[in-house]
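Changelog-adjacent note: as of this version, every example in the card shows the full chain rather than a window. The one below runs 217 residues end to end.
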Amino acid sequence: MNHKEVNTLPKLLSADVTEYIHRKLLACPRFLVVTNNVPIRRFQMAYGAADGGLIVSSYEDTDNPNNLTADNNNDPATRDLNVFAEMILELALNRCYVDQLPSFANIKIKRIFWNYYHLDSKGTFHIDDDDENTWSIILYLNTANGCGTSIKECIDGIENDMMISQVAGDAVLFPSSFEHGGTSANPGMHRCCVNILFSANPLHIKTVSNILIDEEK
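Full-length structure tokens:
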């Protein structure tokens, strides 16, 4: 686990659990069309796509003045989705250990977005958050060959473009300041994923005489 780079988390969820969550998402009545906050026709002209996909915002930090919806945190239609997202986050963090010790402390969910892309959707490149102590997790809810998430990993000023393939149950964790964007779906298919944004204190821990020392302090 490295806090400053892209970390893949293969087979985070089993196939049956992933498909169960996928079905629950597709039945959610709270999808919004993404247009990057501009009129739909302007988006279509600028990006050459029908839309930026559809999104369910099931949780957003109330301190954020730019929330998609005002009451999503108390919406009964998305409560189950939030339970699934909390499970996904915990399972992902259980993979994030250094020398058998946790990599993060003081974890707080900032946002949970569920994405749906069709053939003519186009995810534009963006960053989720420029706070250095914020990370993004994307977990794929179905398999879409040749599709996924393009991420511009940036380490010490050096960029590395990569594509994280969409495989059901796989996840990726990376700093929220990395630019990224979702691809369109394949013909006759769709692609679904969940994006969990969380803040935390990164821990790089050494063991000295059985005393844990947080190197970030």
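Structural remarks: The chain has a mean pLDDT of 90.
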